[in-house]
Specification:
The protein is mostly helical. The chain is built from 13 helices and no strands. It has one domain.
Length: 240
Amino acid sequence: MWSICKKEFNQFFSSLTGYITIILFLFVNGLFLFVLKDSNLFDFGYATLERFFELSPWVLIFLVPAITMRSLADEFKSGTFEILQTLPVSRWQIVWGKYVSILLVLAFVIVPTCVYIITIKSLSSGGGIDSGGIAGSYIGLFLLAAVFAAIGLCSSSFTSNAVVAFLMSAFICLVLYFGFNAISKLPAFQGKADYFIEMLGIDFHYRSTSRGLLDTRDVVYFISLIMLFLLITIKNLQKR
């Protein structure tokens, strides 16, 4: 498993793709946080990273599928998946190896944003920020990225076309993140099952963790989604 993880990780950073991914994530977030009118922290007036955690899901919905789209699709297209099957590793080890490598890449994408904490602290009038709340929010952000990574890997197991895998993954992420919240607002569900329908969506649980509140129910929800999509990935590989 670790050999697959190491190969995938090194392959991602062996070209400019990995570095461009990190720069793009930092650039887009930095643009909204410090430059664009009505969204930057200077207009907001408070030393908080709330805007960052509100914006990040939008960026990750498209960034994570771009990272994961080639994970299995390229293996099918180039015929190297058959070679993987001849190695003394199980399908679970193949999937986990690739998944852990994606999580490491995402960690390298998210960790540099800690520079925002230093910036916010230096800009605050009192020189202090809610470090505990920010730490909890970062855990929630990583869990969200981990769910998107599982969805992306699963989507890549359905096709040998990386572009199709990207589109499928981005669509599923969008539906699971915003879909249930939108459905809960329909007049037919107002005052009845709207709360329970909203609870099925990722947005409901991420909003809780993005405020620095780590609830066991939210963590269980994220882990359950991850395991579900990884299990579907395993089933797809078994069919092949």
